[in-house]
Amino acid sequence: MLKFDPNIPVYLQIMEFLKKKIASGKLQPGEKLPSVREMAQMFGVNPNTVQRVIQELERENLIFTERGIGNFVTKNEKVISKMREEMAAKMIEDFISSMNEIGFSNGEIMQLIKKKIEEER
């Protein structure tokens, strides 16, 4: 179960969780999602909250619904790729902004990233 941040609407946190699952490939294109009821139990929330998540993800074309069958991850790889790029851009912007706030220049940030990548090899 997710640990929810009380400062962010729960439905947005569930959306972000599912988007990360799609972006990482843990939820594959065309894969069936658990039912609204099952997800409500999984996340410990009201089914109406999950229904809102489903509606928002459908609006973003990340999932589609087949009446009477269920909800599925989009099969459109371009939609998934675009979402991944948008998520990455946001993470990078947030990271750079946070690093700038504590006094690092963009050049210093690049050096730190390169050093960390080298350590990971």
TrEMBL record:
Pfam families linked to this entry: GntR
Q: Locate the HTH gntR-type domain: which residues? A: 8-76
* Keywords of this entry: DNA-binding, Transcription, Transcription regulation
Please indicate which superkingdom the organism of origin belongs to. Bacteria
Concerning PROSITE patterns, the annotation shows:
HTH_GNTR (PS50949)
Q: What is this protein called?
A: GntR family transcriptional regulator
